[in-house]
Structure formats: C-alpha cells, structure tokens
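Input (structure):
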C-alpha cells in the first residue's frame, strides 16, 4: 500500500510545485467529474463504463501529468460513491498510469494516428487494470503473494476483463473525436497551456 501511495506522490508534488492558473485546475476538476459520472451512469453493468476511456483521452489531449491526475482523482472521487477502502490507492495508481502512459509524447502521437491504435491501447489498459487489481486482491487475502492464487484470480476474472477491455476500446473510439474537439476549443478560448 505504501509503495502505491508513494508512487503517486511525485506527480502530485510536481503539480503542486508548478504555478497553475485557475482555468487549468477547473478544467482538470471538470474532466474528473465527467469521468466519475461515466462510471456512475453505467454502474449497473459490470465492467462496462467509459471512465478509463475518458482518462485515456485526457492523457492524449492534455499530456501525461494531467492524464495521471484525472485518472487518480477519478478513482478516489468515484469511490466516494462506490466505497473507499484499501483498494483505492491501487485504483488511483492504475487509472493514473493509464492516463500517464497515454499522454507520453511518442505514445500520444501513435494513438492520434488511428482508431485501431486507440482501441488496442484501450484493450491493453483494461488488461493492465485487471492484472494490477488482481495483485492487490492476492495481497489482501493473507498479506503475501501466491502465484497460484494470482493465476486463479486471473482465470476467474476473464469474463470481467474481456468486458472491461472491449468497453475501453469502444468508448475510447466513440468519445475521442468529440472530447478532443471540445478540449481543443476550450484550450484556445481560455488560453490554457
């Protein structure tokens, strides 16, 4: 748990140290709220929601740091509705890393080229999230890691993981152009970045 929390500290520290204008903070807060709303609206359908897709799109359009912030803040904020617990820092880290990696310059350029790359990244992000959260589940059972238990969890989670992966791919492709267009307009209109 300390390892996951400490992994989030450098990004938050760097962001706090940097002089931000209020417009950028409001934009991050609104994007976080939209991601949380996406998770909330689809809560009745297991593993189907646009939250990760919105986080991916934020990373692509606004960069790695903002992608991480929107991802990790979306996790902690949405868990106010769905329940906080020791799993929350793991969700913060995994969704944050999904946004961070999508915002890295060379990955960002690749994802902008084609919907196929965006769909593949959505699938890989879903696998990463599922595999990482299954690691937490193994540790939460009796505080030590067991490969047998981990593999059993991976196998039993296959339907959930498949649904989540394709949900990420579908919503990423569906929402990318709309959100990107709106974000570009907002960045120009309010002179952000």
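Output (sequence):
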């Amino acid at each position: 748990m300390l390892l996951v929390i400490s992994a989030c500290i450098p990004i938050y520290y760097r962001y706090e140290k940097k002089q931000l204008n209020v417009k950028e903070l409001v934009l991050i807060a609104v994007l976080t709220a939209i991601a949380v709303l996406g998770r909330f609206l689809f809560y009745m359908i297991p593993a189907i929601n646009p939250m990760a897709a919105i986080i991916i799109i934020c990373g692509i359009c606004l960069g790695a740091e903002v992608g991480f912030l929107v991802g990790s803040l979306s996790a902690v904020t949405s868990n106010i509705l769905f329940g906080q617990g020791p799993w929350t820092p793991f969700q913060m880290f995994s969704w944050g890393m999904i946004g961070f990696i999508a915002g890295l310059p060379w990955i960002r350029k690749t994802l902008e080229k084609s919907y196929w790359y965006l769909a593949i990244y959505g699938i890989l992000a879903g696998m990463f999230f599922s595999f990482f959260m299954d690691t937490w589940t193994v540790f939460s059972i009796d505080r030590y890691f067991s490969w047998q238990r981990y593999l059993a969890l991976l196998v039993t989670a296959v339907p959930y993981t498949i649904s989540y992966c394709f949900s990420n791919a579908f919503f990423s492709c569906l929402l990318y152009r709309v959100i990107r267009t709106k974000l570009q307009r907002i960045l120009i209109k309010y002179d952000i970045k």
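Notes: The radius of gyration is 16 Å. The first helix runs from residue 2 to 17.
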